[in-house]
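Researcher: Let's run the pair from yesterday's discussion. Sequence first, then tokens, for each.
Model: Starting with the first of the pair.
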Amino acid sequence: MDIHAMVAKISGELSDKAYEVSDSLARIGSEEVLQAMIVLLKNPNPESRYLAARTMAHMTNNAAGLAPLMDAIQDKENSSQQGELLAELEGFDVSDYYVELFKYYLFGGFKVSMIAKDLLDHKDFDITARVIKKATKHWNHYTNNVKHDELFTLKKREVEEILADLQAFVSDES
């Protein structure tokens, strides 16, 4: 299979076979494919950027693509598709990214916040006292910068429960 020709099929103008090509590239899963997808995360076409994230998420050996995908999620150019890109983190080991996902949960729009919360609820993380301290810092920043309405009260209850559970987990580990 000509990987370059396949990558070209998900770069720019997409055909109705783009998802099939993405699946094929993910099955190949080579370092060459991974590097091509990392480059494709910066493609001018938002659909191509999404397919790059999707392809990497379906690859077995995708660890080197996680940091570039996190950069793409944070890129202002991708703000309209932040949720779709964030959802592709499901296919990665995000165990070291609790604080980043917690920030998306707090500060993201509705879709981004819900996707981040789902990842926080269902993925495994390396939780340490430092992670809890950073998460608490972001929570304090959030509480000082948002309107204290009914929605805030609901989120406050949920976050305080999350932080208490994390603290209990770390205390049990010691």
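Model: Moving on to the second of the pair.
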Amino acid sequence: MSHAQTAATATAAPTPAAATAAKADRLVLADNESFLMPLDDIKNVHPSYPPDLLAKQLPPRTVCLRVGIDEKGAVTVVARAPASEFCATSAEPEFLAVSETAARTWKFDPALRCVFRNAKDKERAVASCDGGKGIPQPVTLVYRFRFEQVGGKPQVHVIGG
């Protein structure tokens, strides 16, 4: 897998040479810096559809979780994400429980803030820290777990990160 460059909420302790945070929960990058998302381990398991709910033949349900990942790639926080148009909070508690249990076992290669000598070196790196210094960063990502039954068979899709 490769580091994806999508938006994430990142926290970092600002240093004089580092980017400064506009808010405590947002990382602001300098012109000579880039950000690489954490890579999830291929062994990370998805939750299973709760067997007790299969017979109910429920319509699709979605659970959203905030997953905190530290600078070593370990999961430090798993919590329900706030409700949004993509994340309803009305799913049965069993869906939330299996999602939280799975997410707590996940491992990652950490997110990286790449610091380069200048903006041109950054442009040459193209989605990597090549030619710069990779500084591991803690991040919080939102994952969406969609539980559904298709043709009578349970399916769980994990979206996000």
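Researcher: Give me one sentence on the second I can quote.
Model: The chain has one domain: 9-160.
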